[in-house]
Write a structure and sequence with these properties.
This protein is of the alpha/beta class. Helices cover about 25% and strands about 25% of the residues.
């Protein structure tokens, strides 16, 4: 029933970590009614309202690590910290670790997330140009110029991370789905905005399946309302 589902949700990360040693990976994104995460010019502020964004910050607060890709860092220059929705001030101590998947080590020295207190990990496939202001982990994959995402997730589990939140663009998000590393999806959908445009950004890239039979399916799906926006929450089945 619903009460049991909520109780299970409270311990979902702990249960997976105890069983497998791996963290529980939640991917979240905000999108327009037509499934776009930004305009063709890259503008995404703001697709959803303040209530949905406050809930997203609560996810950061409850996460041990937040992961993003270098594309998001270069485009949006995020801090990836949890902030009080009313005052805008940082809630210190969470998340413990911020992770940038940056295969070719392009993160600039003046990236905003490096200016905040807290640990930053740069996951690279080539460490020659790695940023020396943060911890660097080498995780080359068999594919040229890409990071072994499974190795990064294992590393976070070994560091004691129980819950990992992913806030990224379509490339990293799609790759995580392709690798079977996603446990949970949280999608904030605006009910009053249609972005349009064939070049506007979508939430999930990657290779994807060729037939519907092979698509990623969610189970235990529920919806919650935040102001004018809807959150769709489900588990990868």
């Amino acid at each position: 029933d619903a009460s049991q589902q909520r109780a299970d949700e409270l311990i979902e990360g702990f249960a997976k970590h105890v069983k497998t040693g791996l963290p529980f990976v939640t991917v979240k994104w905000a999108m327009s009614l037509d499934g776009k995460i930004a305009t063709r010019g890259g503008d995404s502020k703001w697709i959803t309202g303040s209530a949905a964004r406050a809930h997203a910050h609560s996810l950061r607060y409850r996460s041990d690590a937040v992961m993003t890709g270098i594309g998001t860092v270069l485009a949006d220059n995020p801090r990836l910290t949890a902030r009080d929705p009313k005052s805008g001030t940082r809630v210190y101590g969470r998340p413990y670790i911020r992770v940038v998947v940056d295969s070719n080590a392009k993160m600039p020295d003046d990236a905003a997330l490096l200016e905040e207190d807290g640990e930053v990990i740069q996951a690279v496939s080539n460490g020659e140009a790695a940023n020396r202001r943060c911890e660097v982990i080498m995780a080359p994959s068999q594919t040229e110029d890409s990071v072994d995402l499974a190795a990064v997730v294992r590393h976070l589990g070994e560091r004691g991370c129980i819950n990992v939140l992913v806030e990224a663009g379509e490339r990293l998000t799609g790759s995580l789905f392709d690798c079977g590393l996603v446990d949970k999806v949280v999608v904030y959908m605006s009910t009053d905005k249609i972005i349009g445009g064939s070049d506007a950004l979508s939430p999930v890239g990657g290779s994807g399946p060729s037939v519907i039979h092979d698509v990623t399916r969610l189970k235990n799906v529920r919806m919650e309302q935040f102001g004018e926006d809807i959150a769709i929450i489900g588990y990868v089945g």
